[in-house]
Automatic annotation (TrEMBL):
Ranges of Basic and acidic residues composition bias in the record: 658-670
Region (Disordered): 304-331, 658-758
Pfam assignment, any one: Gram_pos_anchor
Residue spans crossing the bilayer: 767-786
Biased composition (Polar residues): 671-687
Signal sequence extent: 1-30
Domain of life (superkingdom): Bacteria
Source organism: Haloechinothrix salitolerans
Domain Gram-positive cocci surface proteins LPxTG: 749-791
UniProt keywords, alphabetically: Cell wall, Membrane, Peptidoglycan-anchor, Secreted, Signal, Transmembrane, Transmembrane helix
Ranges of biased composition (kind: Pro residues): 710-732
Protein name per the record: LPXTG cell wall anchor domain-containing protein
Length: 795
């Protein structure tokens, strides 16, 4: 029987505690003490099994070796994805306030001061001495070349980040050694090669995380998805150094590998293939694993008000809070911060950096079961940016705040207020005044106005062939096509959701744009209107739906200018579900729901003075002056205008079955759960999941008491999956469900499961019409006019 590669349990426990204590009491002052530095290069190479698994193996075990070495770039299959844990007790101090001048004077700013406070903390365990030690470290760096004057930024980059660089890199290295079974006397960790740096011309050390003299492989582990430029420069020299020209270079990443890293290593591989006449000399293996930090909150831990129902409580915390806070508010600031964090990211503490997320795509994708006294769990999704070092994401704090504020706005206000209306006949019914005091309301009205411009382009035959088809089939007067006097509006399509494990996953939340004929009294000066018969009106209405509305709807669901609208609608779906749960049993949201008090979620930042009347004035200006001009073959120059509305009074949903959830959205449940502790990529996509939870729900423990796998016996059978089935059978998530597998019985499209209002795309207007004259303003959708006028030359 091949020996187990599980280290003795007692020895492993002692090792873990030792690492945690050392990490808690030491802080690097001027940068991470990581792989590749000359100081660490002096360390004696050790066997990987002894270093990371706590024991020696006499020989390699079955299945041992680097994976993906037969392809220049490869990604691990999903059944090999997993988690690893690392200790970062400094994270608990991320809310520590900057020192006052008196505190800084007391703390000091010398190495002796640091050692003094550290010794007192070790002796007494009194956290006040730990705080003074941190202040002393901050003061010392102010005198050095690493001057980060923003104390909170210094805490994040240097105190927390440097510790994570050390312990996260170690955690990832241990995970790969275990998973790849890099055991036996041939696998050495910390192999140093002396080489001349091509940039400086100086002799330097290049230290590799793992080395096998027998297979002639040099291996670098990166818990994030990016390489370091200085190490890569030296790699190119090493691979052409006498004695190493027959060696191969392997890069193992733990997260989505950046395009630049794949390209750089791919280019070097092609060069060496041509020089050596052998394939796969340099390979990149993306071995997806999530690093989960372990730390315990204290009185200096920062908690946020994001997704926090009770302002009297400490708040919420999670990766999305941290990542959003790190991002810059502007593109230029984002580039500055990306450079700053990159300089302190050798161990992968910050992944792709603060600019790695495209925050314009940020949307709420999950909320957990809201229970009284426990707040709520939550998770967001967002796309990664292709190259964060060149074009980083920014504005994370503002986008996260908007999604959270909208969530509470939808809870606090009664649904009859969730509409906006731009109509020249109704300047006094633009939107509810309370709704207008929120950013959610602002977003809806601005989206309504934006749709006017998109309609103007969509009906321009010089820009779209389909628009020409509308004009060719439109009713005419005096040989000139008549513009459609129709209203059109944005409303929700049924959202695809999955209620499971006590929470709701928002899988898709599309929006619909619809149109119907509408008469108005207001006319633009000089406008020439068509007096159409009822059949002609219906013909015009259907033609708009066929040739114009699909383009406008596509833009609403995909274009960047509607990103905020999509963001607040995802929050609307989540809020409606929370309403349902609270109706069954009181939650922390009970006092908020239907209170019509939105004072905690007002207009913010640059929009604090926003006015619905100013938007209406802009809208009227477009009616008077026009948006698009174009020539029609029928003669005459035309331009078009509009009026409109957005109606989120309903939030229809379709609860997908368990089978559909598992097959079309695999690993969503697992990835969402992990996202509450760390940023994680969803499957093989460019989408990240980032979550958080209320303070009382934080779990920083290791759920796997013995994660070491047993090696395959010789001869090895088929490898078993490394994780249990992704979704065990659950109880029906909605009344009336209950297939044989414990999932949901599919319902007809118009009645598909769940308790949210089943309005669909058409029922919303019927509901509004039935509400009577008192709610007329709610039903007024979007109206567009075309005015024709002849140019001066046409007389």
């Amino acid at each position: 029987m091949t020996p187990s590669i599980t280290p003795p349990r007692r020895r492993r426990w002692v090792s873990t505690v030792a690492v945690a204590v050392a990490a808690a009491l030491t802080v690097t002052l001027t940068g991470p003490f990581g792989v590749g530095t000359e100081a660490e290069a002096a360390q004696k190479p050790t066997r990987c099994d002894e270093k990371w698994l706590g024991r020696k193996y006499d020989a390699p075990v079955a299945g041992s070796g680097i994976k993906g070495k037969n392809q220049p770039y490869s990604v691990s299959p999903e059944n090999e994805w997993g988690d690893y844990f690392y200790d970062n007790p400094n994270h608990a101090f991320d809310g520590l306030a900057a020192p006052t001048p008196e505190k800084q004077k007391l703390a000091g700013n010398t190495k002796a001061d640091i050692n003094k406070w550290k010794a007192r903390y070790e002796k007494t365990g009194n956290i006040k001495y730990r705080v003074l030690e941190i202040y002393a470290r901050y003061g010392r760096q102010l005198k050095s070349g690493n001057r980060i004057r923003d104390f909170s930024r210094w805490l994040d980059v240097r105190l927390i980040g440097n510790e994570a660089n050390r312990t996260k890199g170690d955690g990832f290295e241990r995970k790969i050694v275990r998973d790849f079974k890099l055991v036996g006397p041939d696998w050495i960790c910390q192999k140093t090669v002396r080489v001349r740096d091509p940039k400086t011309g100086k002799l330097v050390n290049r230290t590799y995380d793992a080395y096998n003299a027998k297979t002639k492989e040099l291996v670098e582990f990166k818990s994030n998805g990016k390489h370091e430029a200085d190490q890569f420069r030296r790699d190119k020299e090493v691979m052409r150094k006498p004695g190493y020209r027959d060696h191969r270079l392997r890069l193992i990443t733990g997260e989505k590998t950046t395009r630049n890293t794949v390209n750089q290593y791919g280019k070097l591989n092609k060069e060496l293939e041509n020089e050596r006449g052998k394939t796969n000399q340099v390979t990149v293996r993306e071995q997806r694993n999530n690093g989960l930090a372990r730390w315990r909150p204290n009185q200096y831990t920062r908690f946020d008000k994001i997704m926090n129902p009770d302002p009297s409580r400490v708040g919420t915390k999670g990766p999305i809070n941290d990542v959003a806070r790190r991002s810059g508010r502007t593109p230029e600031r984002a580039r500055q911060l990306q450079r700053l964090y990159n300089g302190a990211n050798s161990g992968g503490a910050f992944g792709r950096g603060p600019g790695g997320i495209d925050f314009t795509t940020l949307e709420l994708q999950y909320v957990g079961n809201p229970q009284r006294g426990k707040g709520i769990d939550y998770s967001f999704r967002a796309d990664y940016v292709p190259d964060p070092d060149v074009d980083p994401g920014y504005g994370g704090a503002e986008k996260l705040q908007l999604a959270s504020d909208a969530f509470f706005t939808w809870l606090a206000l009664t649904p009859d207020k969730f509409w906006v209306n731009l109509n020249p006949d109704q300047p006094d019914t633009i939107m509810d005044s309370t709704f207008a005091s929120t950013d959610a309301g602002r977003v809806l009205l601005e989206a309504d106005l934006a749709m006017k411009y998109d309609f103007a382009e969509a009906i321009n035959p010089e820009k779209r062939e389909e628009a020409q088809l509308y004009w060719d089939t439109a009713p005419r007067r005096d040989g000139i096509p008549c513009f459609p006097t129709v209203r059109f509006w944005i409303e929700p399509k049924p959202a695809k959701v999955r209620e499971q494990n006590g929470g709701i996953y928002i899988l898709d939340a599309p929006l619909r744009v619809d149109a119907e004929w509408l008469e108005t009294d207001w006319q633009a000066p000089g406008a020439r209107e068509c007096d159409l018969t009822e059949p002609e009106k219906r013909l015009s209405e259907e033609s708009v739906r066929r040739w114009i509305m699909p383009e406008v709807e596509k833009r609403v669901n995909n274009n960047p200018e509607y990103a905020d609208l999509r963001r607040v609608y995802a929050s609307r779906v989540a809020a409606e579900w929370v309403r349902q749960q609270d109706a069954k049993k009181a939650t922390d949201f009970r006092e908020i729901i239907n209170s019509n008090d939105v004072s905690r979620w007002p207009l913010r930042g640059e929009n604090v003075d926003w006015s619905k009347h100013e938007v209406w004035q802009r809208y009227m200006e477009t009616l008077r002056e026009g948006i698009e001009w174009f020539e029609l073959e029928y003669g005459g120059k035309v331009y078009n205008q509009g009026a409109g509305g957005v109606d989120f009074s309903q939030a229809p949903k379709r609860n997908v079955t368990k089978v559909e959830f598992d097959t079309q959205h695999p690993r969503t449940a697992e990835t969402t759960k992990t996202s509450q502790r760390t940023e994680t990529a969803y499957r093989n996509t460019e989408t990240a999941f980032l979550g958080g939870t209320s303070a009382g729900n934080i779990d920083n423990g290791d759920p796997d008491p013995d994660p070491e796998p047993e090696p395959s016996p010789t001869p090895p059978p088929s490898d078993p999956p490394t994780s249990s089935p992704s979704n065990p059978p659950t109880q029906p998530s909605a009344p009336g469900g209950g297939g044989a597998d414990g999932g949901d019985t599919p319902a007809p499209p118009d009645q598909a499961g769940g308790d949210l209002p089943q309005t669909g795309a058409n029922a919303a207007i019927r509901w509004l019409a039935a509400a009577g004259a008192g709610l007329l303003a709610v039903g007024v959708g979007l109206t567009w006019w075309l005015r024709r006028r002849k140019t001066a030359s046409e007389g």
